[in-house]
Amino acid sequence: MTVEAVPTEISRREALLRHARGHLPQALGLGIAMAVVLALIVLSNWRIFAGEPVPGLRLALIGGAIAFAATALGGLPALAMRAMPQKLEDSLLGMAAGMMLAASAFSLILPGLEASAKIAGPGPLSAGIVVLGMALGVLLMLGLEAFTPHMHPGVGSVGPGTERWNRIWLFVFAIALHNLPEGMAIGVGFSRADLGVGVPLTSAIAIQDVPEGLAVALALRGGGMKPLSAVLLAAATGLLEPIGAFIGVGLTGGLELAYPIGLGLAAGAMIFIVSHEVIPETHRNGHQTPATIGLMAGFALMMVLDTTLG
Q: How many angstroms separate the CA atoms of 120 and 146, rounded?
């Protein structure tokens, strides 16, 4: 048994190395992004070793838990539903995309520009700090997308080792990749215990998690999973929200420069997800117009939330 396991492990390692060589830019980008994120986490949290509290940690975890609960709540109707009209699903996902875009602009990029201006003064340098964070977010998501086995509807399986997982699990991994940057955004938003940034951002993410949770649960049911199992697994994808929130608040909790960089990183990651996955998925079935109207409605709703709660 042991003798057979060794070549299997070696072959998996070789397959991963071949995949990395075939995706060298993504591998380098992922390495750079993760190194910067790790360095910012260490530099931002040196006060922990002195026994000082982490600002915003409790609020960030509550926000992540709310987003997780919204995902679970959204999946509950799948206990009785087997499917929803495709046009309605695309419209709701379009609305979710609009809210994510608006949240990236109003609750992440604008506060990031304001925070960076206090450090570098108004001008191109302060904008460059936020752009640097956005670039890191894109590099992070490109790398995770290239090296996490998952599946996109209409595109097929992506990443190394996809043959070892069935279609349902690959789909679950894809949704989990969605939820990680959302959770990081919540953590970054609350990292300074600023309710004006964190509350509208968390509200937007939680609202758009409801139709997303339902879409995931229904897709799992369509793949042959039993109703309760589909709902529970859809809810489990939301666990990445509080985990991401913990990472986000750790990333920007202490170091002054890390705050605008972290806001830009979360914005870049969310915009990448919207453009790379959500919008193409809503346009895949010929429902571009209702999906676009949904996107505009979601964008407008987020503007109202931001001006009301921010």
A: 35
